[in-house]
Write a structure and sequence with these properties.
The complex is a heterodimer of chains A (about 140) and B (about 150). With about 140 residues, chain A is α+β, with helices and mostly antiparallel strands. Chain A contains four helices and six strands; from the N terminus they run βααααβββββ. Chain A has one domain: Roll (Thiol Ester Dehydrase, Chain A), CATH 3.10.129. Chain B is of the alpha+beta class and about 150 residues long. Classes of the chains: A alpha+beta (about 140), B alpha+beta (about 150).
């Protein structure tokens, strides 16, 4: 188990960066695991018929993958006590190449008394931020 | 246009959802988790849990069950084909663990109108046996107006 020395942490410190390759396979897998079978996440024709450029990733897949940066840092998925995001831009997933999501976590706030740290996450696709105000409070 | 009168409306508790170990593993793989606490019973138990722990966004599966009730409610009048997910938050009193039997109670926290669009915020409280609050899921859907 990761042991984090809260006294040694600094606001602004980067805790990690992870690249996630989201492919059509990832989308189908997430659809099955979550029960969200909206066809805009696996059918180009349906996506285009509602005015989208193509199949896009489930926002909840982006949200779920992004928090893994905080989970990996703290070492225990059960220590994320509060996690919220805004969905600001779609992540289009190319049928052949997929989409690369780059997630970086930084320390946003340190609450030493309650042993909680707020991790601010940025998630970018094609150099554009796709999540807004992505913040995870973790118990350390 | 979403019916503004459903603001404050509460929907009855869903049927209990039994959280399975393999379901947690399946969901963990789907969100690209490699955290042993999500996948390995021994690692989870060594960390003090009874069984594998669900990823932080797993509660969406329970939230969806309540949301489906609202989307099927003619009074709310929400056109699902026009729905875009605006934001999402999960506040955990404790993590969801395999073996939990969960019910959810949804309340329409607010309905706002922005031009032709509606923004609806739902608050879903997820309880384990004995009315133990496990998670509060807050979700805002944007319903695009007709052209």
């Amino acid at each position: 188990m990761t042991h984090i020395n809260i006294a040694a942490l600094e606001v602004g410190q980067v805790i990690g960066t992870t690249e996630f390759l989201l492919t059509r396979d990832s989308l189908v897998r997430y659809a099955g695991a979550s029960g969200d079978f909206n066809p805009i996440h696996y059918r180009d024709d349906v996506a285009k018929s509602v005015g989208l450029d193509g199949v896009l990733a489930h926002g909840m897949l982006t949200m779920g993958a992004a928090v893994q940066v905080a989970v990996d840092w703290v070492g225990d998925a059960g220590k994320v006590v509060d996690y919220g995001v805004r969905f600001t831009k779609p992540v289009f997933v190319d049928a052949q190449d997929g989409a690369v999501l780059i997630v970086t976590g930084k320390i946003g706030e340190i609450d030493a008394e309650n042993r909680e740290v707020r991790i601010d996450l940025t998630a970018t696709f094609n150099e554009t931020a796709v999540l807004g105000k992505a913040q995870a409070r973790v118990r350390v | 246009m979403v019916n503004p009168n459903v603001q404050g409306k509460k929907y009855p508790a869903t049927n209990p959802y039994l959280v399975g170990r393999e379901k947690i593993r399946e969901f963990a793989h789907a969100v690209k988790s490699t955290n042993p606490i999500n996948l390995d019973v021994f690692a989870a138990q060594a960390a003090g849990y009874n069984d594998v722990v669900a990823p932080p966004t797993f509660a969406v599966v329970i939230q969806e069950r309540s949301l489906a009730t609202v989307l099927g409610d003619p009074e709310a009048d929400i056109d699902f084909s026009r729905v875009v997910h605006g934001d999402q938050r999960f506040i955990h009193a404790r993590p969801i663990v395999a073996g939990d039997e969960l019910v959810s109670v949804l309340e329409v926290a607010s309905v706002k109108t922005l031009g032709a669009h509606s923004m609806v915020t739902f608050e879903t409280k997820i309880y384990a046996e004995g009315d133990e609050l496990v998670c509060t899921a807050i979700s805002t859907l944007v319903v695009r107006g007709g052209e």
